[in-house]
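Write out the 3D structure for:
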Amino acid sequence: MPEIKIVGRGVDTLVINVCYANEHFQPVKQELAKGVQHELEVLQGAARRREAAVPTRWSFKGMSLFMQEKGSRGQWRWILKAPQVSPLLTVAISRGRLSRVIAQVRLSSEYLWSCAYLAEAIVEVGLLLYTLFGEYLWFQVSEVDLCADVVGWEVSQTNWQEGFISRAVGENGRPADLACALDGPDVVERRWKRIETLNFGRHTSAVSCCIYHKTAEIREKSPTKRWFYDLWKRNGWDGNAEVWRIEFRLTREFLHSASIEQVEDLPEYIQALWEYCAGRPGGGADGWPDGWLRYVTPTADTNRARWPVHPAWEVVQGAFVQEDEGLGPIVRVRKREKNIERGLASVVGYLSTLAAWVGGDLAKPEADMSLVLRWLYGAGLDYLEEKERDFAKLEAATVWR
C-alpha cells in the first residue's frame, strides 16, 4: 500500500471585505469618497467606449489594474482586475450606500500559493487598498477556502457511500447534529464512470467541502495550473501518483459565528479552522472523533459518531499541524509599522498647518520642526489643563490594531 502523505496545504481562495475606519481603526459606514467615485466613473466610461477593459493608474506587483466595462450584480458598480487575463486579484467596488462594505477583494489561488506566507498576501493587498481608498480602512474576512493535497489515497476506491460522516446541511435545510450525522456526499460527480468529485454541503452553506481528483482536474480542465506540480514535488510527489484535494469553504456566516473578523488575525486561526472542519488528530477533548467531516472505518457500534477515524483521514487531519508559526504577529507588526508611518505623515502635516496658523517665528522660512515641537509642548500642556485631561490616560485609551 503506497504511503499516504500531504504534498500541499494552504489557503486556496480568500475574499476580503473592505470598510472605512475611524481614528481607532474600527469599521464605520461611510460612502465611498466622491473623488474616488468620479475617477472610477471616468475609467468605466472609457472602458465602455472602447468596449474593452482599460488600464488605471493603480498597480499590483508591477501589473496595472484594469477597469472592466461593467460592474456585477448587486452593489458592485465597478470591477478592477490585475492583470486583465488570469487576474491575481479582483476588486469589486461599491458606492457604500447599502452597507459599510465599500469593496470586496478576491485573491486567486495562483497568487496565494505564490506567497511564502498568508501574512505576505494580506500585507501586500492591504497596501494596495490604502492606495485605492485612503489611510483609514478595516479589512474583514468574507470567505476562505482551506485545502490539503494528498497522494497515496485513491478516494474513488473508498467506501465513500458509508465511510464519510458529515454535519452538512440536509435536504430540509437544517444542519445535522452529531447524533444524526449524514452518511456520504450530497453530490457525486463522475467522468467516464470514474468518481472525480464528492461534494458535502451546499456551495452557499456556512461550511462546505469538496473532495476532488486534482491531477485529473489539471489535466482536463486547468492546464495553466501545472505550476502545482513543482510545489508538490518539493513536498515529495513523484510526478506520477494521483493527487486528491480536500477543500473546505468557510463563508462569512461561519466566520462570524466563530468570532473571526479582521483578516489580519486569520493566519493565527488556520490550524484551528482546519481541525474544526476535518477533526483533531486523536479526537476531541472527550476522546471521541470530531470534525465537521471525517472518513471513518465502520464498526458494529450503532452510534456512528464513535466509529474510528480511518488512517488516511488521520493524515488529512494533521495537514496543518506544522502550520508556520507567528504569522499573526508578523501581520500585526507590519500593520503597526504602516500605522506609525501614516501617523507620522499626519503629525508632520498637522504641525506645518499649525505653524502657519500660529504665525510669527513658527511661520518663518528658517523655522525648523524642533521650534514647532517646543511650542506644541507648552501649548499642549495648557490645552490638557484647560480640558482637565491627562495625556497618559488618552494614550492608554488609544486602540492599536
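Residues 26-135 form one domain.
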